[in-house]
């Protein structure tokens, strides 16, 4: 019996390490700590994370399925690059789906969900005042997740969660542009107002303007470089 418990504990530990490695590496990629195009080895990642190679290899397999890394001969693990083509394709799908989510949120959001959106905006303004870009990025992601939740469709929420993950590296770039963060807070306020007043047409226009402004800001930033 003790052997069975020990074996179960060891399996749990392996799963925990694999999940820890995956979440840590994913966060570093999405926040651009591991920059697009960067090449790293599994051995270096294992040392950096303070764990063995196996959980790191398993994490890399998941990240490969997510499209965030590629395993290349003689280069190791390469962080997938980003391009304006990626941005345009992601935003085309966001416009098709997130617009509908905003409309449903305006029709279905509860008072608790609306308050959660308002609390998020308050915290985002605090992060803006503190110039805490990392917190801004996290709160921006949370804001869009709250809209998906308020829409009341779990399948759509899952689809948008994947799109938002794929957008986050662009968000990191966008939110580092001076002045853009103020615009983001203003746009979020308009979206919240539309949802709170139960106006799906206004919510659609507001979220569409928000997504288009995001794309324009990224394109302008890339062209300036």
TrEMBL record:
It comes from Roseovarius pacificus. It holds the Pfam family FCD. Keywords: DNA-binding, Transcription, Transcription regulation. PROSITE patterns: HTH_GNTR. InterPro entries: GntR_C, TF_FadR/GntR_C, Tscrpt_reg_HTH_GntR, WH-like_DNA-bd_sf, WH_DNA-bd_sf. GO terms for molecular function: DNA binding; DNA-binding transcription factor activity. The keyword DNA-binding applies. It comes from the Bacteria. This is DNA-binding transcriptional regulator, GntR family. Residues 15-82 form the HTH gntR-type domain.
């Amino acid at each position: 019996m003790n052997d069975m418990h020990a074996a179960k504990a060891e399996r749990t530990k392996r799963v925990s390490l694999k999940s820890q490695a995956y979440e840590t590496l994913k966060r570093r990629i999405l926040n651009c700590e591991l920059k697009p195009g960067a090449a790293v080895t599994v051995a270096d990642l294992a040392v950096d994370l303070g764990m063995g190679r196996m959980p790191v290899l398993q994490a890399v397999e998941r990240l490969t399925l997510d499209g965030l890394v590629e395993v290349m001969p003689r280069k190791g693990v390469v962080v997938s690059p980003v391009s304006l083509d990626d941005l345009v394709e992601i935003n085309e799908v966001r416009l098709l789906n997130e617009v509908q989510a905003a409309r449903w949120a305006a029709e279905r959001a509860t008072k608790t969900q609306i308050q959660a959106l308002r609390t998020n905006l308050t915290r985002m303004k605090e992060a803006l005042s503190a110039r805490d870009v990392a917190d801004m990025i996290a709160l921006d992601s949370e804001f869009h997740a709250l809209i998906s939740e308020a829409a009341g469709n779990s399948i759509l929420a899952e689809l948008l969660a994947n799109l938002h993950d794929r957008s986050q590296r662009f968000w990191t770039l966008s939110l580092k542009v001076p002045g853009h963060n103020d615009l983001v807070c203003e746009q979020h306020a308009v979206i919240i107002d539309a949802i709170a007043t139960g106006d799906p047409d206004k919510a659609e226009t507001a979220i569409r303007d928000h997504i288009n402004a995001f794309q324009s800001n990224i394109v302008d930033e890339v062209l300036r470089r």
